[in-house]
Each structure stands twice: as structure tokens, then as C-alpha cells.
Amino acid sequence: MKTINIGLLGLGNIGTGSYKTLEMNRKVIEKNSGLDLQITRILERDVDRDRGIDVPMEKFTQNPDDIFKDPEISIVIELLGGIEPATSFMISAMENGKHVVTANKAAVAASFDKLMSTAEENGVQFKFEASVGGGIPILHPLTTVLRANDFSEIMGIVNGTTNYVLTQMTDHGFDYDSVLKTAQEKGFAEADPTADVEGIDVANKLSILMALSFDKYVPPTEIPTEGITKITPADIEAARVKGCKIKLVAYAKRDGDTIDYGVKPMELPLSHPLASVSDEFNAIFVVGNAVGELMFYGKGAGPLPTGSAVMGDVLEIAKSISK
Amino acid sequence: MKTINIGLLGLGNIGTGSYKTLEMNRKVIEKNSGLDLQITRILERDVDRDRGIDVPMEKFTQNPDDIFKDPEISIVIELLGGIEPATSFMISAMENGKHVVTANKAAVAASFDKLMSTAEENGVQFKFEASVGGGIPILHPLTTVLRANDFSEIMGIVNGTTNYVLTQMTDHGFDYDSVLKTAQEKGFAEADPTADVEGIDVANKLSILMALSFDKYVPPTEIPTEGITKITPADIEAARVKGCKIKLVAYAKRDGDTIDYGVKPMELPLSHPLASVSDEFNAIFVVGNAVGELMFYGKGAGPLPTGSAVMGDVLEIAKSISK
């Protein structure tokens, strides 16, 4: 069996979930691909934390060049989060001939063109399925089996934290502040929830979705973005009376040569496929001129769902380079 | 721009939808792939029918060898329907070095192992995304970006005709016979609806889903199958009282080494993601040990949605062979 060696940048929650996904499904992966995937080096300072996985100490390094310059490593997984040094590291990895997989929506959205062109110039693959919708397969279908479509519309609920908050407000009549506090206590919301509740995370994902489906890259900072911080129980009730639910939606709609796009709370009629997407679930609704309406639904975050998408990308690259 | 020549077997409804999908999205396909896809020969007796497309007369042939033996053709699309001669034609095409794409669930399910091994022996690709869920991307994600999962459960509403009939019975209290008659008048059901209403079509699709996700091929004739012909308005009402809807479901659930599977009408609680899938829509619900619950929703039939999946497969093959 052929071995594919992998370098991992970051062993936080998502890194640990990806490592676990590989270990728990090693047999299934080997059976289906005939490949032995090995994470051989990990860039991570915190070597002592108990992550519930057994990582041999010699895999850890604090020098990224131990990964980028290792001729045995063909794929680099970037799971550091944040824009820098993640972006520079991905570019260095590609310049050293490594294929790159990431879940980092902020970095991909901020430097989409640069990362894509660096991959092309260096003849390597760059994949980021986990960056939108977590475990939901959306970017891969959009760029493969759906590619014979001209897309006219995308709508997505792509942030679990805000969808959880809005669902709790809708189902129980709670106000924003108290739901957010509970969400933080349960670990569904960050201590600093700004990127989620202000819609910034959603704008990153919309930027990526538009680049891949409409072939139009708009930096997330140029996407009109409104979060959920001003939503009141009165707004929720007003929507309910109209037969609607308020959801934080990323939308892009093409009309001829113009695209209307943005991130904002919207009143969706209960009959809309996205209206029934509750709590931490995500869903992406797409309209193509041949396929019609499609919806992809699942867990948009979490270590294992995200790990599923990360390792799926890794496996696709591993299969293609071992042919 | 590189040209990929394609032979098409059958220019019925789905063949016409695939031809239309290619023609109407030619620019998008060229822009995204850098490839010029051309359907150069079509096996079809009925050359005179008005299909709303402009097909030059010289493309038609009644001799399959004009396609199989044409060295300029690299991909064959089989859209004849039915088991024979479709299966023999697909095998002949592969033995002549052609990659094959089909939407033919009956043929794929009946001879899954033989078709897969013929493809492997001849070093060609064999793709059949359109055979399950029409335009919904399901087989491709299951075998690519989700392949790092161990799947434990699949449930699908994968027949539009029966879902339309059950939806009409549920929403309006109509009885089975009158709804079926209306469906036939509207073209949502065949003149001979046996394969749909007896669950045979669903069993074909379940056979394919199980083979790809559980790596276990069960011939459709060995799948316990019950259709919807015995469902009465009283059954629908009894389900409603329990907070459920009756849906014709293909299911497969793994428990250790055993898999429980079949096709039957099931009472689904309204909270189940599949319960809200109405009319001619299809949806497939999947549980993977890393990704958790996923659902894929869209149009499970129709010339253009099916054409979307057929041309998506063709495009994937075309890209891989022109690298």
C-alpha cells in the first residue's frame, strides 16, 4: 500500500477533529483508496494538552520549514485559523510543491485570487471544502458534478452560532442577550462573538461561494453585511405573524450581468426550504439553470464534521497524486 | 481549446435534456474547463421528432458500432433506459476504451459488479450520478469528499412520482386511485406506473446507494420492497394524528456487521428532515460517523435536472482525460 505523508499546521479543535477522523476511519479510507495516509509532522506549540488522541511527541515541531522542506510530505493541512500567519504558510507550502487543504474561511476569502494563482503557478492542488458549511459537501459539488449549470442564485445559512441564537429566540421568545449568554456557556458561541454575530464569518463564506459558483470574487470587506445584534423579540414576533422566520442569510442573485449580494437577517416564509434549518445546523440553497433548486443540509461546524471535509479533500488529493 | 467528442445512445426525454444542458451552458462549461464538448454521434431511430433542439441529420446513426468503433469518440452517454440492450452497449463501449456515463438505474443496479469490473479491466471511467436523485449531487459526494466517513445510515425519498402521489393524498385527503390518475394526466406518472408505485425504481436506487456507501452490493430483486398501492386515506390520517407523514422510503442502517435495508412506506415524524420533502422533490439523508447528519435535496427527475447530472459526469471525465 502506498503511503502519503501529510504535514498539519495547528492542533486546536479542528486539527484534533481532523486527526481523529483519520484515525477512526483509517480502515475505511484504506479499503476505499488503497492508500495509507499518515500525518507525520504537526506544527503546534502546545504539546502537552490532553486532546483525547495519542500523538507521538516526535511528530511535533515549532518550525514550519520542518514541514515545508520535508521532501516526504506531499500534502499540508492548514488549520491555524486567522489570516496570518496562515496565508503566508499556505503560500510557502505551495511554493515548496505541497498540495494544500484548509478550513480557514477568513484566509481563503481575504486572499482568494492570490491563493488560487499560487496553486496554479506551482502546479499544486488547493482545496477548502471545510471553509463553507463545515462537513456539508458544497464547494466540491459546485465545482464538479454541478459545473454544467449556470447558477442564478445562492442563499445560505452558514453560521451555526447565529442560527442557534435566532432559533432559541424564535422557539422560546428569549431576547438576544440572554440567548447569547447561554450559547457562550454551552460553547456554541465564542467569548468574543463579534465575527459571528456581526455577520463577518458569513461574509467570508459568501465571498468563497460567489467566487466558485458565479466566478466572481468579491472581498468580504466589500460585501454589504448586517449581523443579528439588533434583532429583538418584537422583530421575531412580527415575522411570525407574517408566517415567516428570521434567519441570517448569505445571498447572491444574478440578474443578467449584475449580481445582488449581501449578508443580512431576512424574513423567510415557512414554506422556504431554509426556514426549517434550526439550531446549529447549516444549509445552502442553490439554483442552477439545468438542475433547478437544490439544498445541502448538515452540521456547519464542529471538530468532526469539519474534520470530515478536511480529510475528504486530503483523500481526493492523495488519490489523484498516487494514480 | 481541446475538443472532447461524445457519443450519445438514445435521444428520448433525458437524452434531449442532456443535449439541451450542454448547448445552453456551452459558454459556462468552456470557461470553467477550457474544453469544447461535442456530441458528434447519436444512436436513435426517431430522427424526425421535434425535440426543440437543432440536431444536424448527419449525427444520427442506427449502428452502435459507429460510436463504439469511432476513434475520435472518448465518452459514451447511455440514455436508452431499460436493462437491455443498454447494459450490453455500455460493456461494448468500455471494451472499446470509451468512458461511460449513464442515468440508467435499472441497468446499473442489475449489473453493478459486472459494470464496475468491466470499467476497471478496460481502464475507463464509469459514472452514474444521474441514476439516483436525478440532478441532486449524491453519488459523487458519497464517493469523494465524504469518503473519510464510515456511514451508518441512509434514508431516501428517491422517487418523484410516489412522493407526488403521497403528498397530494396527505395535503388534500384524496385517495390513491384518483391522485394517480391526475398524476398520469399531468405527466408526473407513467401510463404503466408499476415500477414507480411498487417501489421497484426505489429499490434500484437503494441498491446503488448501498453499493457505494456501505461497499455492499445487493441486487434490487433481493431488497425487501413494498410500494404505495395499498396506502389509504385512513392510513394517512392515522399517521397525521401521530404527528407523522407517510413517505416511501429507501433505508439502510448498519448495526455492527449487519445491515437492515428495504423499501417501504414509513411514518416519519414532522421533525424529520425528510418529512417536509414534498411533491416531485427528492432528498437523501445520510449519517456518517464524522460528518453526522446530512441531507441533499432537489429535483429527482426531469430532463434538465437529470441532464445536469449527466453532463456533470461527462465534464468530470473530460477534465480528467485532458490533463
Descriptive overview:
2 copies of one chain form a homodimer. Chain A is of the alpha/beta class. Chain A is built from 13 helices and 11 strands. Chain A has helices spanning 13-24, 26-33, 65-68, 86-95, 105-110, 112-121, 139-143, 160-172, 176-186, 194-197, 200-213, 233-241, 303-321; strands at residues 2-9, 35-43, 60-61, 73-78, 99-102, 126-127, 151-157, 244-255, 258-269, 281-288, 292-299. The first copy, chain A, is globular and about 60 Å long. At the A-B interface, α1, α2, β11 and α13 of A face α1, α2, β11 and α13 of B.
- Which spans of chain A have pLDDT < 50 for at least 5 consecutive residues? none
Extended strand count of chain A = 11
Mean pLDDT across all amino acids of chain A? 96
**Element order of chain A: H for helix, E for strand:** EHHEEHEHEHHEHEHHHHHEEEEH
- The helix-and-strand class of chain A reads alpha/beta
Which chains have the largest interface?
A-B, 51 and 51 residues
SS element count, helices of chain A: 13
- Biggest beta sheet summary of chain A: 6 strands, parallel
Helix content bin of chain A: 25-40%
How is the largest sheet of chain A built, in terms of strand order?
3-2-1-4-5-6
Report, as a whole number of angstroms, the end-to-end distance of chain A: 13 Å
Q: Rg of chain A to the nearest angstrom? A: 20 Å
So what's the overall shape of chain A? Answer: globular
Oligomer: homodimer
Measured by DSSP, the beta-strand proportion of chain A falls in 15-25%
